[in-house]
Amino acid sequence: MHGPSGPGMRLRAAPAAVPTPASIWASEADTGQVEVRDMGRRTGGRKGKRERKAAGSGRLSKAPEVPADGQSSAAADRGIQVHRTGNASVNGDNSIAVSGALTVVQPPPEPLRWPQVVGNPPTTASAFQERPEVRKHIDTARDRHATVVLSQVLSGGGGVGKSQLAAKLFWEALAEGTELLVWVNAAYPGQVVAEYAQAAQRVRADGADGEDAEADARAFVNWLVRDECRWLVVLDDVTDPAMLAAWWPPASMKGLGRVLATTRRRDDVLRGGGREVVEIGSYTPAEAGAYLKSRLERAGAAHLRDESETELTAALGLLPLALSHAAAYMINENVACGRYLRLFTDRRLLLDDVLPQSADSEGYGRQVAAALLLSLDAVRAADPSGLAVPMLHLLAHLDPAGHPGELWQSAAVLRYLRARREPRRRLLRPRTSPEQTYAVLRLFHLYGLIDDDSDTSNPSTGNRRVVRLHALTARAARETVRARDLSAIVRAAAEGLAELWPEVDQTDPDLAVVLRANTSALAECAEETVWAEEEARLLMWRAGTSLLDAGAYITAISYWEGLVEQAERRLGPGHREALLTRSNLASSYAQVGRTKDAIALQKRGVADCERELGTRHRITFIARANLGNSYLQAGRISEAIALLEQVAADRRRYLGSRHRDFENTLVNLAPGYLRVGRADEAIRLLEPINARRGRADDPNTLTVRYMLAQAYLFCERTDEAIPLMEQVVADRERQLGTDHPETLAGRTSLGSCYVGSDLSREAIALLEPNVRDCVRILGPEHPTSLETRAHLAGAYRKAGRRAEAVAVLEQVVADRQRLLQAANPETVQMACMLRQWKREQRSRRH
C-alpha cells in the first residue's frame, strides 16, 4: 500500500520506507528534511530533545513550527507531522514516500527501575567456603580504599577461587541493595568496552546513543563519576592492567561506588590510583577439608569420606579448582577418598584423566591443567630469550615449597638452558646469563606462575626458598615434557643442586635442609631417570650423608634403608654404590645405638667390598673403619684397636700421612687407646693433627679437639682439658645448634671434666638439663643418653647426694645390660662401681 504524499511528488527508484513512526527513511535527493523528536521529558540523566540522523538522509535540522493546518488526521494520530514539499519516490508495499520535514512524537520512556544487573557473573559455588581471613583483608582494604584488586599470592596462578570469591561479593552487594552491578570479563579490552557500552544504555548515560561502542563506554565511565546511585563494577580476569588503564572505573567521589577486580598479574600499576591488592591463595587445610566434607554430604555421598580425606586435600594442593573437579569425579564415579588418592598419585595418569573436563560442575570453563598453565603463553610472548619453557620444565622437578634463587646461576643450569635454545647448532647458540634467567623468573612471578621472593637488586641473597611453584602447576608442566628431554632436565637439576651444597653442611644448615628437600622432590617425580643418571644418584647419596651430618639419625636410617633396597635392586648388590649405601646405613644404625645391627651389616659389607672392589679401594677402607668404630661403641675394644690400626697403616701407605682419611682414622683410634689406659699415645696422635688444623673450626677439626680434651682429662690434665672442651662446646653450639647430637655429646664430656675437677655444682647444672635434652632428642636408650646419665650419677656422688647417685647409676646399668649385654666391658665396670656405691651406702647407715 502506498501512503499519502505531498503535491509535486515524483516516483523514483530509491524507496524511503517507514516501518514504524520512530524510523524514517528518506532519499539523498530529497529536498526536504527529516526530524525524529522525542516530545516527552526523559529520565535517568538525559534532558531536552533527542535528535537522530535518520539512516540515508542528507542532513538534520530543527523542525519548523507545526502549522495549524495541512496535517492529515491519520498522520496526527501516528504522531507524524509533515512540512514543506519536495520530490520523493517510493516503491514496494507498506512504504511511504515523504517530501518535507517530519516530526515524530514518541511516548516518554519508562522510568529506570533499580537494581540493574549487567553481565553474567557465575553463581555461588557449591559448598562455598567463606574464607574469613581473606574476607577480613578485603573488608579492611575496602574501608581504606574505594577500589580493591584481588590477586593470588601463591604460585600456580589459576584455580585459587578469585572469581568465585568475587561472585560471592557481587551477589551479596545485590542483596544489600546496591542499585547497579556490572560484571565484566576483563580478559580483553574489547570485552570491557562492550560490557560498558551495554551498561551505558541500561543507565541511559548522557552521550550514549548506541552507535559507537567506545563512545558509549566512555559515557558510562563518566556516568560513574557522578555517583548517582550505589554501584559495583567487577573486572574479572584482568590480563593486561596497562591496556585496561583507560577503562578502569574512577574512584568513587561520594563513596557510593566500588570496583572489584581479579587478576593473576602482580604489576605495580595495580597498586596505584587508590587501589589496594589483597593477595588470595589456596584454601587453608581446614577450609579444604570443610569444602570436601560439605560437597560430598550435600550430594548424598558422605560414604565416600574416609581416613585419606586430609591426605587427599593436601595432594590436591588445597587448590579450590582441583578440589571442585575431584569432588565431582568422586561423586559421579562413586569413588572414595582413598581410592581417588591412589588414582591421583598414579604417575601413569595425567591430570586431565583424574581431573577431567566432565567434572567441571561449577562452570569454571577450563580443564585444570590448562587453567594452571594459562599464563605461560603470555610469558613466552614477553620473553625474548626463549628460556621460559625449559626453565618451567626444570622448575617443575624441584620442591614446590621452594628452592634457592642461586640455582639459576649455577654452571650446570646455564649449560642446560643454553642447550635448549635456538638455533639447533650448538656453536651458534647464544650463551645464557644469570641476568636472563632472573628476568624470566620475574616474568613468571609477574604473570602468577610462580612466587619469586628474590631481592630485586641482588638475586643472590641469603634467602633459601625464594622460588616456589604450586605442586599442581608443577605436575601440569611436567606432563608437557617430552620423554627425550627428561634426562637433560634431571642432570641439570642434580648438578645444579650439588654445586650449591656446602662442603660442610654445618656452615649453612638452612641451605642443607632446602637442598635435601629438593633432592627428594627430584627423586620422587622422576624416579626412573634419577636412578639412570649417575649425577642424580650421587646427589641422593649427598642428601643421605647430610642427614647424618645434621644428626637426624632416625630419619637417616629410613632414608638409607630405602636407598639400599633401591640400589641393590637397580644396580646390583655388588655395585660400588650399593656397597657404599649399605655402609652408610650401618653408620646410621651405630649412631642410634643399634650396634648389633650395625656390626652385622658392616661385617657383611667389608667382605663384599674386599671381594668386589679389592682391599685398597677407598670404599673398602671406609667400610673397615666404620666397623672398627662400631666395635668401639660395642665395647669390643681390642678388636676395634686392631682393626683401626690396620686401616691407619694401609691408608698411610697408600694415601700418605697428611691425607685427611688417614688423620681421621687416627682420631677414631684415640678413644680406643683411652679406654685401655693408653692416653699418652692418644695425645701423641692428636696434638700434631690439631696443630696442623690451626684455627679451623669445621666439624672434623672440632672432633679432633674434642678427643684431645678427652685425652687430657684421662691424664688428669684438667687445666688443659676444661678450657679446650668449653671452646669445643661453644663452637658446636654456634655451628651445629644446641640440639645437635654432637653438641649434646660435647656437653656431656664437659660435665665429665667438671666432675673430674671436683666442680660438682657446675657439673650438675650442666648435666641435668643435658640429660633431659638427650632423652628428648636422641631417646633414653641412645649411647649418649646413657653416658650422660652415668656422669650425672658421678656428679651427684661428688656433691654428697649419694642416694640419688645410686638410683641413677642403677637404672643406667640395667639399661646397658639390657641393650649392650651384661658382658660389655664398660657395663661390667659400671656394675662393679654400682655395687661399691651400694656397699658404701649400707655402711653409712650402720
TrEMBL record:
It holds the Pfam family TPR_12. Residues 154-267 form the NB-ARC domain. Residues 43-52 have a biased composition (Basic residues). Residues 1-78 are annotated as: Disordered. GO terms for molecular function: ADP binding. InterPro entries: NB-ARC, NLR-like, P-loop_NTPase, TPR-like_helical_dom_sf. SUPFAM superfamilies: P-loop containing nucleoside triphosphate hydrolases, TPR-like. PANTHER family: AAA+ ATPASE DOMAIN-CONTAINING PROTEIN-RELATED, ATP/GTP-BINDING PROTEIN-RELATED. This is NB-ARC domain-containing protein.
